[in-house]
Amino acid sequence: MGIFESVDILGVRVDDVSWDEMLAAITHLVKKGGTHRVATVNTEYIMAAQRDPEFACILRHTEINVPDSAGVLAAAWWLGHPLRERVTGSDGIYRIAELCAMHHFRLFLLGAGPNVAARVADILAARYPDLIVCGTHPGLADASVVTGAENDAVAEQIRLADSDVLLIAYPQIPQEKWLSHNQAKTGAPVAMGVGAAFDFVAGVQKRAPRWLQRLGLEWLYRLIREPQRWKRMLALPYAAWLVFWQRFTKDRIKDET
Fold first, then answer.
1. What is the value of pTM for the model shown?
2. What 3 state SS string does the chain have?
3. For the chain, which residues make up each domain, given as ranges?
4. What is the pLDDT of residue 232?
């Protein structure tokens, strides 16, 4: 599945898509109807897909897998398929809100802590006066629980709100699993996980300065502010080794043929 040219990074499809192309695709998919997902793929996603077959399958069945991290851009370049730009959920929330305001799409915000989504709705509505935020919900306290009566009730709330675009701000892997299990029940034509974006918009967390983002060091800034993330960072050098090996074996096969 997928509608753009892409690169395979350790078995995960990452699309070569620009901001404008992603927004145009979202517009088309909302008008088309059905249910469609946009995944923001970073190194953590790629490594999770190595050990979690369910998650790997989820990423194969999205319409768009945007390159969300500097590590993904570097891996694509090393594999000989450079991607044009980084497309992140943290920046995308503003662009998608603007798109929804322009086309009068109804936006639903799910996730983050108590009252955070509601605060984000107020901030975005003030920034984009034509924006229709048709509902907000903090989601369940345990994001790893993606099925059951409580989740059915959340999905029903989103459906009754007649949502066109659903943004979900759960931890990164659970948000994709929640959408895989529940998006069809919500009736939202387009859904996208945005991770910590609600917290950034609401000021609950501070995002890395722009100059660090441009250098591809946003991960280091978050590690300094959240030292408990260090175990997750251990996956980065292993990912680099696997990508090196993917390129090496590909070149070796090419030389032998």
1. 0.88
2. CCCCCEEEECCEEEECCCHHHHHHHHHHHHHHCCCEEEEEECHHHHHHHHHCHHHHHHHHCCCEEEECCHHHHHHHHHCCCCCCCCCCHHHHHHHHHHHHHHHCCEEEEEECCCCHHHHHHHHHHHHCCCCEEEEEECCCCCCCCCCCHHHHHHHHHHHHCCCCEEEEECCHHHHHHHHHHHHHHHCCCEEEECCCHHHHHHCCCCCCCHHHHHCCCHHHHHHHHCHHHHHHHCHHHHHHHHHHHHHHHHHHHHHHC
3. 6-211
4. 64
